[in-house]
Specification:
two-stranded antiparallel sheet; SH3 type barrels; mainly beta; five-stranded antiparallel beta sheet
């Protein structure tokens, strides 16, 4: 059973963590899991962040 859904999201507010920067207005790949979102900066294996739903909605919007 697959619990992951792959989608595209748009960054609505700049987000920066220790290693990655996500820019407002750009689109990113996101994997949706039941308890968290995994947002990829460049679609690679090491360039992603984990966010809960509240954090995700503050910085990103799913593209329908």
């Amino acid at each position: 059973m697959d619990y992951k859904k792959e989608r595209t999201c748009a960054c609505i507010n700049n987000y920066e963590d220790e290693n990655l920067i996500f820019h407002k207005g750009r689109e990113y790949q996101v994997d949706l899991f039941p308890l968290y979102y995994q947002v990829y900066q460049n679609g690679g294996w090491e360039d992603y962040i984990f966010m809960n739903e509240e954090e995700f909605q503050k910085y990103f919007k799913l593209i329908e």
